[in-house]
Amino acid sequence: MLTREVYWCRLDARGRPAALVSRTASWSPRTAEEVAADIVAGRARYVVPWEGGPAEVVVRRTPGGGHALDAPGPDGRPGGLTALPTA
After folding, report:
1. Residue 52: C-alpha distances to residues 2, 21, 62, 70, 79 (Å)
2. CA 53 to CA 62: how far, in whole Å?
3. How far is CA 86 from the centre of its chain?
4. Which of 7, 16, 69, 77 is least enclosed by beta carbons within 10 angstroms?
5. Where are the beta strands (DSSP E) in the chain?
6. pLDDT tens per residue across span 38-86
7. How far apart are CA 34 and CA 24, in angstroms?
8. Is the peptide bond before 29 cis (omega within 30 degrees of 0)?
């Protein structure tokens, strides 16, 4: 399985992750829908390389049947993707 490092996050108008971005990787940027599909299918894992160690991006189902991405922040709490710099 591929491991893809995430350094920036693009947010939608509601402040939710809309795309994940790496520095120079050919896969980047990748929409939240594409990332969710990669994770659910087991094609790739996405990690945020915090100083304390990598945090894995996870997919959560939303009440409406969609997907939402999240990762622990540097403090270990949810919301790590929104703590990344925006791209």
Report:
1. 21, 20, 29, 17, 16
2. 28
3. 12
4. 77
5. 2-5, 8-11, 17-21, 30-31, 44-50, 53-56, 58-61, 67-70
6. 999 999 999 999 999 999 999 998 888 888 999 999 999 999 999 999 9
7. 18
8. yes
Q: What's the gap between Cα 60 and its chain centre?
A: 11
Which amino acid would we find at residue 69? L
Across the range 28-37, mean pLDDT stands at 96
Query: Cβ contacts of residue 17 below 8 Å, gap of 6+?
Result: 9, 10, 11, 32, 68, 69, 70, 81, 82
In contact, 55 and 6? CB cutoff 8 Å = no
Position 62 scores a pLDDT of 84
Per-residue pLDDT band at 23 (split at 50, 70, 90): confident
